[in-house]
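Support case: user asked for a sample of complex input and structure output to validate their parser. Sending the pair below.
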Amino acid sequence: KQEVTQIPAALSVPEGENLVLNCSFTDSAIYNLQWFRQDPGKGLTSLLLIQSSQREQTSGRLNASLDKSSGRSTLYIAASQPGDSATYLCAVRVTGNQFYFGTGTSLTVIP
Amino acid sequence: ETGVTQTPRHLVMGMTNKKSLKCEQHLGHNAMYWYKQSAKKPLELMFVYNFKEQTENNSVPSRFSPECPNSSHLFLHLHTLQPEDSALYLCASSQDQGKYFGAGTRLSVL
């Protein structure tokens, strides 16, 4: 069974810093990997989707990479802002409609 | 706006009440999902519907009853819930690509 792990569970950084969030998965046979953002008490907002054939995706200050062979993905956030404070989750899609979620990294950006 | 709309956003109900959560997606997706998210716990998949057919029921108690009348609408009927069922209930849809979530219904069972 696929297991998805996110480290660290919580991260606190001063505003302006660049930071990296990590996601690892145990089975490299994935269709795609998706990063989400969740604000407290709210739904999940999709940030980036990386297909299994891709190495990275970029959107604004966000860059996500995928290394299927090692079972790892990173989400790089450049020049962090207080508005980036949220929980970030990664999810891998395996067969059909099966998705496995990590437990998330809670990010706090201090002004 | 993700294209997935959930109503109501907040719901308070007693243990003897019957209520329903509604989810509607405008993305043309063929799969819809119900998730439960409790405080400090990972997302728990409850039900999956694919082309209106239920394809997964993750050992969910019968007090939760899903209904999918068409590929755009998904309901979660609730009856005789317990206080531990209080949580954020999230609906999602997907097609070939990624998954898209609604804003959730915050449910409190008194």
